[in-house]
Design brief:
425 residues, mainly alpha, 16 helices, 81% helix
């Protein structure tokens, strides 16, 4: 498991670097306005993919070991098409975007959803390397396409970003389908919808948790967009992207633990592993945030342009929230693997209520600082609440949160594993 987490973390670091370069190209060559348009475009796609995932999202990681894959994937395809079509009708009816922009968003959402379905099956089957490829590939292809459109074709509008997204999502959907097709029987069968009720049952629970988490992650983006405009959102999103680097290890642990715990029933072992990785992730995240915090404003100016020079100060109140949310990222895996969504939903709902109240109170008065403060409080509520629930459920004393000798040995072995991976690579 250590090697899988190490590999996944390295893939996510590559993804983060690639996303950093994408943000650099957008901000440097296209400016804050187009960067803001790209942010709202990608955020809207994320929300539509969420609705597509009611049947066929990450709940498949729990379902695939328990049901036949074809009974899950075919209904997931059908549901994705229905959601994309309905989204187009609703977005056009309320004139949220132009018809062309709406069509692009819905088509890209369908392709991204298909990749998510395939990726979840690979993760459930513990095909970690292929899952990581599916995770990283669209970012690399988007980066490459964006560079070509900007540097070769000299395109300076949102389509320099939109066209590479089509190539990235399309190629990834096709490759991921090839990867997971070995686990699926495509023979016609009247039983293909027999497990649809399970897909909805577990998919709904998982997606309710995901929706609340997504709102906690991005609600303040939309409020900034409406209160301050697209350019300010473009500036602010750079700072948030920099800080979210501190979630790489926590997210990697969450993914691997979710897959591993879903395939065995030893809850006590799962709790012990969760607690141990919790300490490692917090230490690593604190170190990353410290490095980001000491970066001079000249770094942002050099990397993204003078307009982004003081972005580090706009997100200063996010630091404690980013650190504490690692508790949620690590602990949620054990509850997701048991389909125990109730606790996760409760925690996210509690944080969202606080976030909404604070956003509407603080953003109109303090703008960037208000958005950062509101989000940070929500993240802290999530982290502290889920930690308390986890310790109560598994009867873990407070003293176990301290780093002991076994933790030091574990960290030492993890570092040796990382160094061995780099040497072998």
């Amino acid at each position: 498991m250590q090697q899988s987490i190490t590999n996944t973390s390295l893939f996510r670091i590559l993804s983060t670097v690639s996303n950093f370069l994408i943000a650099l190209f957008l901000s440097r060559f296209l400016g804050p306005k187009v960067k803001g348009e790209a942010t709202i475009l990608l955020t809207t796609i994320t929300f539509l993919v969420f609705f597509c995932s009611f049947v066929g999202g990450q709940a498949l990681v729990y379902l695939v070991p328990r049901f036949r894959a074809e009974r899950l994937i075919i209904p997931a395809y059908i549901w994705t098409i229905l959601v994309a079509a309905l989204s187009y009708i609703l977005l056009r009816h309320y004139q949220v975007f132009t018809w062309r922009r709406t069509l692009n968003i819905c088509l890209l959402s369908a392709l991204a959803s298909a990749s998510n379905i395939h990726g979840a099956i690979l993760l459930a089957k513990r095909e970690i390397k292929r899952y990581n490829i599916v995770f990283l590939l669209p970012v690399l292809l988007t980066l490459g396409g964006l560079a070509v459109y900007i540097l070769v074709f000299h395109q300076r509008d949102i389509y320099a970003y939109l066209y590479p997204l089509y190539a990235a999502y399309g190629i990834t959907a096709a490759l991921s389908f090839f990867y997971c097709s070995r686990y699926i029987s495509w023979r016609p069968s009247t039983e293909v919808f027999d497990d649809l009720d399970s897909s909805f049952k577990y998919g709904l629970g998982y997606q309710m948790f995901e929706l609340l988490q997504l709102l906690n992650f991005r609600l303040y983006f939309y409020l900034l967009y409406h209160i301050q405009g697209v350019s300010d959102l473009g500036l602010y999103s750079i700072g948030v992207s920099m800080l979210e680097v501190a979630w790489i290890l926590g997210r990697s642990v969450s993914v691997i633990h979710y897959s591993d715990f879903s395939n065995h029933d030893n809850e006590r072992l799962a709790a012990e592993q969760t607690l141990r990785y919790l300490k490692v992730v917090l230490l690593a995240s604190a170190g990353v945030l410290l490095v980001i915090g000491v970066l001079p404003v000249e770094f942002y100016s050099l990397a993204f342009g003078r307009s982004f020079m003081y972005v580090k100060y706009q997100v200063k109140w996010l630091y404690p929230g980013i650190l504490m949310y690692n508790l949620m990222l690590v602990i949620q895996s054990i509850y997701l693997s048991r389909a125990a969504y109730g606790r996760l939903i409760f925690v996210q709902l509690l944080a969202l209520i606080s976030s909404v109240g604070l956003c509407y109170t603080l953003i109109p008065q303090y703008y960037f600082s208000g958005a950062s403060g509101a989000a940070s409080v929500a993240f802290i509520i999530c982290g502290v609440s889920i930690l308390g629930i986890f310790m109560k459920d598994y009867q873990i004393p407070i003293s176990r949160l301290l780093i002991d000798r076994n933790d030091v040995l574990f960290i030492n072995n993890a570092l040796k594993s990382l160094l061995r991976f780099r040497k072998d690579g």
